[in-house]
Prior knowledge:
The chain has helices spanning 7-12, 54-66, 71-85. By secondary structure, the protein is an all-alpha fold.
Amino acid sequence: MIKKATLAAALGTFDRTPAASARVSTTPKETPKHASAQAPSRRGKKALIAHVAPEVSKQVKQIALDTDRSAQAVVSEALNDLFQKYRKPTIG
């Protein structure tokens, strides 16, 4: 018969004492606000979210594939066209 190990039994055998070489400093480090694993290309930018029909999303992705660009670049181009229509500076 096979004995099932319980979590408590397994943890009871775990050595909770850190090795001398693995000890970490408990001194709090200064971390900037929002210090996450943010991609450099997203620094200084803000997300603009839009809920669109699945067909719209698929079509934007297809245009990106057809033109060998990112969906981000395609949407930026579309926003610049919108800005021009309303006589705003193209900044997208």
